[in-house]
Amino acid sequence: MPREIELLGCSGLQISDSSDMADDAAAVVWDSALVLLHYLSKRQREGRCLVSGRPVLELGSGTGVVGLAAAALGASSVALTDLSHVLPNIQRNIQANQAAIGSARVAALPLSWGDPAHLREVWAWFGQAEQHHQSSAPFNLLVLASDLAYESATLPALTKVLRSCLQGQTQVAEDSQGQGQACSPQQRILLAYEEREGMDELWEEALAASKLEAHLVPEEEQHEDWRTPEIKLYWVQACSPSWSSGLD
User: Fold this and answer.
1) φ/ψ of residue 227, rounded to 5
2) Is residue 15 within 8 Å of residue 21, measured between CB atoms?
3) What's the pLDDT band for 74 if we cut at 50, 70, 90?
4) pLDDT at position 169, please?
5) pLDDT at position 243, please?
């Protein structure tokens, strides 16, 4: 039976786990995903929506719940990415939530973190999806990710793809509408991460090696009913002398 996810200010979502992947981490909705999507919902309630009118890329989508929430909250286009065997369930959840998605363009796309060709295909999809927007505003991609790393072996590939996402946004901006749109300084990665023993220092080392820095979203800024000290929300960006979320 589908799980109902309620969102403030918009239609709720119906999310199905995958019975075909009973032992796969991508088969279920994880707590970090719920903390992240309810943070997005809270921001909308406060009139500070992070996703309205902007393209969104979700990494390691699993069931697709976070990206679908972004679409329901007003994102212009959303790419839900994961390994190929995960995509059929994501596609089923896209189809089941058409009413909530509304006019957003949403696609399930393959993305293996070690495959540059996959990432190029994602950028090409965004270039096409955003062509119908006649705005002169900079291409303003938001990258969302929740609970992607469970063991140290995955961290180098993960941080490399996070870095590639930030760099690749320039390519999308140039390709979209063929007008050479400038990248916005507001481009960020919003990442939810459940603490696991021994992983915190490894996370910091992997981010530093990829020249990335993470800035904690204070717990008091998160959804009052969907927050816990064990799950952290971070803004991730390329290392810089000074930092501001630029989104308030």
Assistant:
1) -155, 150
2) no
3) very high
4) 54
5) 47
Per-residue pLDDT tens digits for 191-243: 998 988 888 888 888 988 888 989 999 999 999 999 999 999 999 988 865 54
Which residues, 6+ apart, have CB-to-CB distance to 220 below 8 Å? none
Q: Which of 36-50, 130-144, 157-171 has the highest mean pLDDT?
A: 36-50
Q: Which sign, positive or negative, has the C-alpha torsion 17, 82, 99, 139? A: positive
Rounded distance between C-alpha atoms, residue 92 and residue 130, angstroms: 23
Say how far apart CA 231 and CA 243 lie, in whole Å.
22
Q: What average pLDDT does the structure give for the chain?
A: 83
Token pair of 48, please?
A: 């500070």
Residue at 122: amino acid letter: V
The residues near 246 (Cβ < 8 Å, ≥ 6 apart) are 185, 186, 188
Q: Which residue, among 111, 31, 21, has the nearest Cα to 66 in the 3D structure? A: 31
| Three-state DSSP string of the chain | CCEEECCCCCCCEEECCCHHHCCCHHHCCCHHHHHHHHHHHHHHHCCCCCCCCCEEEEECCCCCHHHHHHHHCCCCEEEEEECHHHHHHHHHHHHHCHHHHCCCEEEEEECCCCCHHHHHHHHHHHHHHHHHCCCCCCECCEEEEECCCCCHHHHHHHHHHHHHHHHHHHHHHHHHHHCCCCECCCCEEEEEEECCCCCHHHHHHHHHHCCEEEEECCHHHCCCCCCCCCEEEEEEEECCCCCCCCCC
